[in-house]
Amino acid sequence: QRMPRAARAGAANTLWFEGERVLADNTDGLGLVRDLEINHGARLAGKRILLLGAGGASMGVLPALLDAQPARVLVTNRTLARAERLVESYADSGRVELLPWGGTGSAACDVVINGTSLSLKGELPNLDARLIGPDTLCYDMMYGAEPTVFLKWAQENGAAKTADGLGMLVGQAAEAF
Q1: Is 68 exposed, middle or buried (0-12, 13-18, 19+ CB in 10 A)?
Q2: pLDDT digit string (tens) for 104-119?
């Protein structure tokens, strides 16, 4: 049985047994939001967020991002149709909109979250630097011993703060536990 977060995200990362039943939940989004707000001091309510990617990682965190009450969540992805499907599935929120891959949007974002797999390959998303402002927090869901190429690029382009996904991992694991 899928719990509400897993149902909304379309994916589960936590399973447990209650008698004969298998329950499924998704704790990724809560881990991300807690890391952003508690560990990095980001306030998401009323803010403009850019979510790079429309795959499983982005699907898993978008419900929790919306629960944090941002003014707007822009979604962009290399495959336009995939981004369109994700945006359409949250059309009822009135706060999710499509940004074409490489598009500029209308202003810098408060938070930019890389949910693509590009960091695993050492590649950059196609992102216009004008989306990074002097107060922007750039977050890569990937993590490692060194900053990802995305985080290095964000620093070079004036991001106020950068963070990797290690805190998200810890946060989602704590919630799962």
Answers
A1: buried
A2: 877 899 999 999 999 9
CB 115 within 8 Å of CB 141:
yes
3-state SS, residue 51: strand
Q: Is 5 helix (H, G, I), strand (E, B) or coil?
A: helix
* C-alpha distance from residue 121 to each of 42, 90, 149, 154 (Å): 28, 29, 9, 17
Quote the pLDDT of residue 130: 92
Per-residue pLDDT, 151: 97
- Residue 161 CB partners (closer than 8 Å, separation 6+): 40, 136, 137, 138
Backbone angles phi, psi at 2, to 5 degrees: -85, 135
Distance CA 54, CA 92 (A): 18
Closest CA to 58 of 72, 74, 44: 74
Listed as ranges, residues in the chain with pLDDT below 70 are: none
The reported pTM is 0.92
CA torsion sign for 144, 149, 150, 152 is positive
Inter-CA distances, 52 with 20, 32, 76, Å: 39, 14, 5
